[in-house]
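Might I ask for a little of your time on a matter of protein folding? Here, with my thanks, is the record as I have it:
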Amino acid sequence: MTKTTSTPTVNNTGTGVAATYTIVVTNAANRAAATDLALSDTLPASFTYTSTGTITLSGGATRPTTTNPTAGASVPSWSVFIIPGGASVSLTFTVQIAACVTGTQQNPAAATYLDPARTTAGGTTGASYNSASSTGEDVTVTAPPVVALDKSVTPNGTQPPGTDLVYTINFTNSGGRVASILVITDPIPASTDFKVGSVTTNLGTTGLTVTVAYSSNNGSTWTYTPASGGGGAPSGYDRLVTHVRWSFTGNLSQTAPNNAGGVTFAVRIR
């Protein structure tokens, strides 16, 4: 008995994902037929059977009685097969993996059948696939990237007009995969003027590169270049900037310390 999967790695996006398995049972050549063969699979927690795909009978194997599992079963079983010597049964089925599942999942399969050479009550015998001793059916479920933002300002609390405020946005990927095409956009606070040249980035060991763009029309376009005194602001500041955008190139790892970085900018209270 062998068991394999055509989906050794699946990305669980948070809404659940499917995996497909194939079980093959073979009766050695020059052996008597195995009758009343039934197959079963004990699925991992939060896996449920959804449907049976292709069943291939080779070498004279037959299935006189058709019984397929009920959708939602945690231990799906199939019966009844007859496998002569040298024949085989190949069965493919699909399972649904719950949204909460991650990591490498293993599960055993089993077959029971009647051996005509054993005519007593102990005539039922079996074969099994031991998931602990093989990796052919291992399904590794990865989680999507989860990027969190933490924003702070210095100084905080009540401040008088003319005070510079420095905003810091730290980002961290704590998910199960790298994050790609990361973009951070932040509006300039009301009643403040953007400080020209204040944007900085701290990319640490992320390996990311960044392009900074500015908008003067609430993000409709990103072609504006901040200028000292823009919009009537004091020297060194620009009143026309409405948003700042950081566009990152590369993949943000999910593994520390390569999974975190930060950006800053400053404004002046009017």
